[in-house]
Write a structure and sequence with these properties.
- By secondary structure, the chain is α/β, with parallel strands linked by helices.
- The longest helix is centred in the middle third of the chain and has 17 residues.
């Protein structure tokens, strides 16, 4: 089978790209042909074993106003990308397209071309881009928000949900309106793969008539196990952004000075000003260094304010026998078994988080070791072989249809 894998980024930017790279590797290992379509970037991988095509489209948020104006129409409907994808289809003749992130770059335009040539499309919903203009179900005031779910997109503009910026919010709202009213997304895709059952139910709420074609497929995770270790600190690692709940975690740990917290990741450094003495920000760390940091942590903390679709860092931590403390909503509560593989606290509640931190930190060694072993057993449920077999089955089922 020849699979056309499409994603905006081809370097390890976040969880979506981790899954994207894993999918390509697993497909190649099972002797499928893989064609990659992505955007140009100096950080891009080489794509060994696959055929790589790159589209020239910048990251608009980093562009000058002149370049933003130059590319703004392509943001909504990218005609050059539609021409490129047509040439790729004619040359490579893929059997199926597996799409990850395409909005705000390739746009809906490439889906119309795939449909024109009879190439079925599987859309991998790593976030809520089909449901929410801001893709987070979260507004600029740090509140869960579903006002645009199947309704008007005006709330996104009114509340300035994207970075509290009127222009950004208006562009995202208009893009979603086009995908609902002019080019309905469900006309161009055969299947939606959600990375948690929570996300699946949200997508069914938006597309009730497509219920049968909306599935859950947990992300694959592959890490090198280590021995159980009663670590020296709490750890947050991942993107530094307001929806991740870092300020909540910092305010909570500030009042527990005897417990150290290490933060690893890059992003919005303004969120990490005025850190208390027991909090250390290590910045971004390469994978090899990050592995060692996780191995020495007593718990990883996932304090997200938004509905995490999955929580890749949770399962990665389990694989290193590190239990996890997480907010009890979204996909997080599907992966953390309270008092078995970690602990859940009331999302957004500082007092609840403090209570759980104190309880978990003072756990007897025997109970902690059992927690770590349970976490490792849970990790085994997210193997690459389970993932790729389920993905293949979905591809073959669609092709047979």
């Amino acid at each position: 089978m020849k699979v056309l894998e499409i994603n905006k980024y081809f370097y390890l930017k976040g969880g979506t790209e981790t899954v994207f790279f894993s999918t390509i590797k697993l497909l190649l290992e099972r002797n499928h042909d893989v064609v990659i379509y992505t955007t140009k970037d100096a950080r891009n991988a080489k794509g060994e074993g696959a055929t790589l095509y790159e589209h020239d489209y910048p990251e608009l948020r980093d562009c000058s106003m002149l370049n933003k104006l130059k590319y703004i129409l392509r943001f909504f409907y990218n005609i050059p990308a539609s021409r490129e994808i047509e040439q790729i289809i004619l040359k490579e003749k893929p059997d199926i397209a597996h799409v990850h992130l395409l909005f705000n770059s390739f746009s809906i335009s490439i889906l119309r071309v795939l449909k024109k040539h009879g190439i079925p499309v599987v859309y991998h919903a790593h976030d809520y881009r089909l449901l929410c203009p801001n893709y987070l179900l979260f507004d600029s005031e740090l509140n869960i928000c579903e006002e645009c779910l199947g309704k008007s997109v005006i709330p996104c503009v009114r509340k300035r949900c994207s970075r509290k910026n009127l222009l950004n919010s208006s562009m995202l709202a208009l893009d979603m309106w086009l995908r609902r009213k002019i080019f309905p997304i469900n006309n161009y895709i055969q299947s939606i793969l959600c990375v948690s059952s929570f996300s699946k139910e949200k997508h069914i709420k938006m597309f009730p008539l497509n219920r049968e074609n909306i599935k859950t497929l947990y992300n694959p995770v592959n890490v090198t196990p280590c021995a159980t270790n009663l670590g020296e600190y709490l750890l947050y690692y991942g993107r530094i952004s307001h929806e991740k709940g870092l300020r909540l975690l910092i305010e909570a740990i500030k009042e527990i000075p005897e417990i150290p917290l290490v933060i690893v990741g890059g992003g919005d450094s303004e969120l990490l000003t005025d850190l208390p003495a027991n909090v250390i920000w290590e910045g971004y760390k390469p994978y090899e260094q990050l592995t060692s940091i996780i191995n020495k942590a007593r718990y990883v903390v996932v304090p997200s304010m938004w509905y995490e679709t999955f929580g890749l860092s949770i399962v990665e931590s389990y694989g290193r026998k590190t239990p996890v403390i997480g907010a009890n909503h979204g996909g997080i509560k599907e992966i953390i078994s309270d008092n078995k593989t970690g602990f859940l606290f009331q999302a957004g509640d500082k007092n609840s988080l403090q209570k759980i931190i104190r309880l978990s930190w003072n756990l007897p060694v025997e109970e902690y070791n059992q927690l770590a072993e349970n976490a490792f057993e849970k990790y085994k449920e997210f193997s690459g072989i389970e993932y790729i077999q389920s993905l293949e089955n979905e591809f073959y089922k669609i092709l047979a249809r």
